[in-house]
Every structure is written in C-alpha cells, then in structure tokens.
C-alpha cells in the first residue's frame, strides 16, 4: 500500500437534509446530491485514488465513526 493515494470524504448524510428549507437550490433532493457524490467518487477513483465515503448524522457517535474510517485509511507510522 506504499504510495497509494487515498481520500476520505466526510459529510452530512444527504437523506437527513430537508431540501424544502430556504437556501437550497430549487429541485435539489437527496437522490440528486447522492448522484453527484457518486460521480465525484468515480472521478477520484479514475484518477487513482482509493475513496472512502463517510456520511455522518452529526451525532455524538460520529466522532468515533470518523476515527474508524481514518484508521482504515491511514496506516500506523513506524519509527
């Protein structure tokens, strides 16, 4: 895995967003947002990155979940 490029994408789970609230683009919804994220993931993969998507709900448990993802992505450093 030496030299492997990786990226961890962390964001709010789109299914938790109320797109009817002011400030969101007209017609935007979770399905469209997820399709855009998938397209970005595919492009990063095409460019040679190992991609992990982490959709959070911003609860107390999310910090622990993000740490697990991070540990998967970043191997321990040896001295």
SSE blueprint and pairings:
Elements: E1 5-12, H1 30-46, E2 49-56, H2 62-73
Parallel strand pairs: 1-2
Q: Specify the biggest β-sheet.
A: 2 strands, parallel
Strand order of the largest sheet: 1-2
Spans of at least 5 consecutive residues with low confidence: none
Straight-line distance between termini: 18 Å
H and E order: EHEH
Structure classification = alpha+beta
Instruction: Count every beta strand, where a strand is a DSSP E run of 2 or more residues.
Output: 2
Compute the gyration radius: what is it? 15 Å
Percent strand? 15-25%
What is the helical fraction, as a range of percent? 25-40%
What does this structure look like?
Helix content is 37%, strand content 20%. It contains two helices and two strands. With 79 residues, it is α+β, with helices and mostly antiparallel strands. The protein has one domain.
Short account of what is shown:
The protein contains two helices and two strands. 37% of the residues lie in helices and 20% in strands.
What are the key terms here?
single chain, 2 helices, 79 residues, 37% helix, alpha+beta
